[in-house]
Design goal:
It is a single chain. It is built from 14 helices and five strands. The protein is mostly helical. The strands form two sheets. Strands 1-2-3 form a three-stranded mixed β-sheet, covered by helices on one side. Strands 4-5 form a two-stranded antiparallel ribbon. Helix 3 packs across helix 4. The N and C termini lie far apart (40 Å).
Length: 304
């Protein structure tokens, strides 16, 4: 079933025209449940619709439920996008520069058909350009369920890696604030680095889903279509940030699940590392005993 689910994902993203076989009614139910578990309900609904022209139809009651949930996701995305623009405009009005970190910014990279179907998870915005007292006022004012303001870009609990990450962002400060439509976001290359680092820490501390990995898929596609002269040396940067081996595993997942072409990968893929990541993702739960032998140092910081 996992292989069939990966095919459905590829149909949804336009990487594949049709499934290798038509699912049975009970298999459609399993595919729907997997889409739920991996936070891809809206995206996979798009794929299920695309299969209608090949005569592959989801059972009526199931597709109605699927459609209803997708409509909720579309409404949430519309609301969050408006909210995101409003927050940045108000912050700018107070002399505060800001940049959207992933979320609605990366949704734009999904393209017109899918950007409203990406399952949203709130708004994360980096805020810069104010004294500590003024910034703290706005951190409190915008401390809502769907808006999270950050006065620094740092992840994880490893102080050394966090220090290196912050220095790298400070060194490339101009690429943090790039106007893209109505939003100001990270540059194309910086967004990819940010996503890979965020994936690493979330994988260790919380667990990730294929939705987060799909964000990386679209970031890679955008980097591949960008001016090569402006692309950073990813292997060197990712190694310096302590996430190169993990990123090599992610590249393998990009090929195995999403069918990403080799020319769009930024570092050499690793099947051994990638198969471990994918196994943990598809299990639907974070298993510390599995993670500990591979990430012992960073896991130790979770105890602090």
């Amino acid at each position: 079933m996992e292989r069939l689910f990966y095919e459905l994902i590829r149909v949804s993203t336009g990487q594949l025209d049709c499934l290798s076989r038509g699912p049975e009614p009970e298999e459609w139910q399993l595919l729907y449940e997997m889409a739920h578990q991996q936070q891809l309900v809206g995206i996979c609904y798009h794929g299920a619709q695309a299969l209608f022209e090949f005569g592959l139809r989801v059972p009526h009651e199931l597709i109605i439920d699927w459609m209803s949930e997708t409509e909720v996701i579309e409404a949430q995305n519309a609301s969050l996008t408006r909210r995101c623009v409003e927050v940045q405009q108000q912050l700018l009005g107070e002399g505060l520069k800001s940049s959207v970190l992933a979320g609605q910014a990366i949704a734009q990279d999904y393209g017109e058909l899918l950007q409203t179907l990406r399952q949203p998870d709130g708004i994360d915005i980096y805020v810069d350009g104010a004294d500590d007292e003024k910034r703290q006022i706005f951190m409190m004012a915008w401390n809502e369920a769907d808006v999270r303001l950050h006065d620094q870009i740092g992840m994880g609990k490893n102080p050394y890696k966090n220090k290196v990450l912050r220095k790298w962002f400070e060194k490339n400060h101009r690429a943090v604030f790039v106007k893209d439509g109505e939003l100001t976001r990270l540059s194309v290359s910086m967004m990819l680095v940010y996503l890979l680092v965020a994936l690493y820490w979330r994988f260790i501390y919380e667990g990730i889903t294929l939705r987060e990995l799909m964000d990386c898929f679209y970031a890679l596609k955008r980097v591949a279509g960008h001016d090569k002269a402006s692309v950073i040396r990813y292997e060197k940067v990712l190694k310096g940030l302590g996430v190169l081996r993990f990123s090599q595993g992610v590249m393998w997942v990009m090929q195995e699940v999403f069918g990403l072409e080799e020319k769009s990968l930024v570092v050499q893929p690793s099947e051994s590392k990638g198969s471990f990541i994918l196994q943990e993702v598809m299990s639907g739960k974070r298993n510390v005993l599995h993670l500990l032998p591979k990430y012992p140092i960073d896991l130790c910081f979770t105890l602090l």
